[in-house]
Amino acid sequence: MEFNILTSKKNIISIFISLLLGIVFWYYAKTDSVVTIQRKYPLKIESLDYLITKSVSSDSITLEITAKIRVQRILRTVVPIIAVPNKQPGSLQMAIKKEELIFPAWLKVMNYQIVEPDSIKINLDSLIQKKVKIASVKGIEFAPNVVIIKGPKSLIKNIDYLSPDSIPTGRITTITVSNKLIEVMPHKIWVKK
After folding, report:
1. Does the CA dihedral 79-112-40-86 come out positive or negative?
2. Is the peptide bond before 186 cis (omega within 30 degrees of 0)?
3. Half-sphere exposure of residue 153, counting CA atoms within 13 Å on the CB side?
């Protein structure tokens, strides 16, 4: 009787688990070194629910972070957050302080320096909703004929009508606004002829 190590299911499973554990331990050992990397990250500005960031002087931040290689790899996908202390609309010049940057807690990012910018200018506006009518097209009705727009007060306060994106040929058309800060709900409407 001939014995072959690969013929037994139990042996194949053991070999596979050993190989998998070997790869995991190799990766862990390979990425355990601590390195310092300077990288530019996109920056997220967080404000109160009734405020919206209309503009910001810099949408990114350059940081010099000292961490293990595996943490540095994960950090490539992270977006640091800055919480805005303002409770009212208006402009704000805000110094970026190390203790105000928020990273996901499980990453335990502690050893880093802010390279640039050292401050940012943020323009805040009130976030409002408003009902507006759909501009009529000869011989065509829309359902609904009123939509809700949501965005900065200064941008939407004078909008009373919206037009469909195109002359509808089918049963549905869309309504969009060129400014990405303004949201239209619903953005698709039915066409009645």
Report:
1. positive
2. yes
3. 11
- Cβ atoms of 63 and 80 closer than 8 Å: yes
Q: Computed from CA positions of residues 184, 188, 192, 193, in that sequence, does the dihedral angle turn out positive or negative?
A: positive
d(CA 111, CA 34): 11
- 3-state DSSP assignment of residue 138: coil
Strand partners, 108: none
**What are 57's two structure tokens?**
């002087």
> Is the Cβ–Cβ distance between 63 and 109 less than 8 Å?
no
32-126 is classed in which CATH architecture?
Answer: Beta Complex (2.170)
Single-letter residue type at 57:
S
CA separation for the pair 91, 12 (Å, rounded): 66
Q: What is the pLDDT of residues 110-145, one digit of tens each?
A: 788 899 998 999 999 999 999 999 887 777 888 888
Q: 149-163 pLDDT, tens per residue? A: 999 999 999 999 888
CB half-sphere exposure, 101, CA atoms < 13 A: 27
What lies within 8 Å, CB to CB, of 37 at 6+ separation is 64, 65, 72
Separation between Cα atoms, residue 143 and residue 45, nearest integer Å: 36
Tokens read off for 94: 């805000």
